[in-house]
Every structure is written in structure tokens, then in C-alpha cells.
Task: structure prediction
Amino acid sequence: MDPDHPAAPTPADELRELNELLRTRPPMARPLPTFDPATAPADPAELHVSWLLGALREGVPDAQVVTLSTAGHDGRTDARVLALRGIDPVRGGWSVHADARSPKGRQLAERPWAALTSYWPELGRQIRVRGPVESVPLAGLPAAERALSPAGERALRVGRQSQPLAGLTDCEAAWSAAAPATGDADGLAAHTRYTVLAEEVEFWQGDPSRRHRRLAYRRRPDGAWDRTLLWP
Result:
């Protein structure tokens, strides 16, 4: 073997290295913020706003990104990441936008329940929101609420999300042929706002010693929230 040109690692070598790192690398081995549940507000939306705004101010990359978990009529679970588009403290709603023709849109039509999960590794913080889902076409909402980025609008006009793709050139051609972006979802009937009307919201503050702080909110029939500490 030439010491100046070592052999490239084989897939088996890389798998061994990965498994060793998974066994030995401790999670959250860094200073993390503290969280005192006794100071938490009565409304989980208020705490979510505070945590998310803090993450954005700290420069946490893509802090507004959440994992949307769904299941179809067959009960098989699915998940993907997308941007949180709004929090409504009055209704206890957390909203995302998606194409109703996509797999997630079809699953939410079949079984309108979901979970949204935020995780910010830099802060060791998680938030999970669970509840039934309300869907509203964006075309019927005020202009400010249906505004789209040029890239997002073009993707919606192209459509075909998650369908088999024969080659990247087909995607580039469809992108080029799509109608120019107007900055408005008007006329894009499939563009939909999905709002998780929270029944449960959990806040999780990680701790390197694994004495994590967990605070769960559960909505009562009268709309108020009960708060409960959970064991790590």
C-alpha cells in the first residue's frame, strides 16, 4: 500500500466507523440554555413564540422548519420537513402550507390529524404539537396570507410533487416552462393552509446529564390548558 495514497474506505469500513461513532459520541455534549417550567405561561402558543423568536434571534439555521407527521387511511406513518407559516394563539392553531395533491395533502384528507415537531440542536430544544387538522385553500384567504416566494410559487405551478421523475432534464424543462411567478397564490387551487388545532403541546429542554425538562400542555374542553411535568 502506498502510504502517500491510502486506499479509499470501503462501504464496510464506513459502516464500522459510523456504528462506532453512534455508540461513542454523546448527544448534547455542549452548554445548553436552561428552562424553568414554573415560569412558563398559561398558553403554549405564547411559549412557542418565545422559544422560536429566541432561536431566530440566535441565528439558529432554519429555526422555522418543522417536521409534519401524518398517516393515511392505511395507518402507515409518514413525515417530512417544511416551514411553519403561522401561530394563532386565539384558536390554538399552528399552520403550514402545502399542495393538496401531494402525498401529505392526500393523507391529511384521508385522516386529518397530525403532529408538528421542531428541533433546534444548537439549543437542545424540541416542541411537539398534536391535534386535528383544518384545511383551507389559500386562494380564499387575504392576499397577505397567500403570498408566496417566487421559488415556492414556481414549484406549485409545476406540481407533480413526489411523482416518479425520469431524469433531471425533465425537471429543468418543466421549471423553465412554468408560468412566471406573480407572488400570489390566487388561481393555484391546490395550495392549501393546514392548521393543526392543538390538543397537546410539549416543550422539551435537553440536558447533557439527561435530566431533561419536559412540560406538556393539554387542552381542556373549555379551551383552557392544563400543564403537567413529565419525567425525562
